[in-house]
From TrEMBL:
Belongs to the lysine N(6)-hydroxylase/L-ornithine N(5)-oxygenase family. Its cofactor is FAD. It comes from the Bacteria. Pfam families: Lys_Orn_oxgnase. PANTHER family: L-ORNITHINE N(5)-MONOOXYGENASE, MONOOXYGENASE. One of its GO terms (molecular function) is monooxygenase activity. Pathway: Siderophore biosynthesis. Keywords: FAD, Flavoprotein, Monooxygenase, NADP, Oxidoreductase. Gene3D superfamilies: FAD/NAD(P)-binding domain. This is L-lysine 6-monooxygenase. It comes from Sporocytophaga myxococcoides.
Amino acid sequence: MGTDLVTMADPKSRFSFLNYLKENDRLYKFFIRENFFILRKEYNSYCKWVALQLDNCRFGHQVISVIYDKGLYILSVKNMSTGKEEEYITKKLVLGTGTQPNIPDFANRQQLPKVLHTSQYQFRKSEILNSTSVSIIGSGQSAAEIFSDLLPELESGLKINWFTRSERYFPLEYSKLTLELTSPEYVDYFYHLSSEKRRQILNAQNGLYKGINFDLISSIFDKLYEMSVDNTELPAFLRTNCRLNSISSTLKGSNLLEFTEVHQQRNFTSESDYVILATGYKYNEPACIEGIQSRIMRTSENLLNVSRNYTVDINNNEIFVQNAELHSHGFVSPDLGMGAYRNSRIINTIAGKEIYRVEKRIAFQEFGVPVNSEEKFQEGESIKNLAESL
Ligand SMILES: NC(=O)c1ccc[n+]([C@@H]2O[C@H](COP(=O)([O-])OP(=O)(O)OC[C@H]3O[C@@H](n4cnc5c(N)ncnc54)[C@H](OP(=O)(O)O)[C@@H]3O)[C@@H](O)[C@H]2O)c1
């Protein structure tokens, strides 16, 4: 429930998931179900229920450009149903444009029509079921969910390859003291490290936000086990440590994949009809902010220079970002529970007063040198000062 739209910021909000259940006569059913995890279908229905009540949300409107003039941002916005452009004027901007499919450069999908990203899977599943072989690339939750979904097709002879660059099919870590890293104080700690140290830490934290649900791994193994009774040979091929380097189409219209086994440093090829890129998502800056680049701060590596309060502008209180701060605020950036915390901070900064009370500390453990120690953070700020500045 922590991941509904509002509860972590304001459990009294009328837009909570519990209120959605109450208003739709489903609260008792949910209570009897005794399961904390919301079904996707129901989450979708809940989000629609909230959106229908918000008349300040404009759907079907594309922001074409933004310019800055005398303290104001002027947005040209295209109404996608009428085609007309309208102007909106604002003092503050929050960029919540999300992430886009991460497609490797070599996977040109115009030339490779049978290569798709996981985000297209539901729309093209029937094509895959009518084919003879499919390769899934990557070992995050998306890859595992698709592999699991396709598993019954092994019995009808569909050949399924599952390749990943990772060393193993690892689970998402959910132990409680590790979950304490999804906290304001860990974000503070991470934020004040050097960019090099942050990069190193992020590289070692894949298991905290990119792994596979533990029960799903078990269920995949158990299904394979069950299907292999009597030592039946299954057309399923799972292989780790394999970096995909290129894809080309063969004369018969299938795909030829070229890999490197990263430990053995040896190349090999594999052929399959369809390829599903479960290669994740990445943040791309929206094209519409091109006209306000001079107001946006950059790091020496040309990344968005996101300040602790999620602003990226030169005045530190005009342009805010959501889920564009993995490099500065850490692995919690896409976390839905911490999204409510981030939005509370953004709203409080925009309003110039506390609209939502923001937790300063939630964890039992502490990060960094002890408060009473003489040691300081790199930028000369003590933990106590940091907590006060929240
Ligand atoms: N039910 C749910 O709630 C649900 C469902 C799906 C996804 N999600 C979440 O959404 C986010 C994205 O998940 P995701 O599974 O789409 O992506 P992801 O977790 O970012 O995983 C991408 C995978 O692709 C691999 N990869 C990338 N390029 C490769 C290459 N050239 N060759 C071989 N392997 C390559 C990566 O390997 P490396 O590890 O080596 O980079 C990684 O295993 C995650 O936070 C996930 O937890 C949630």
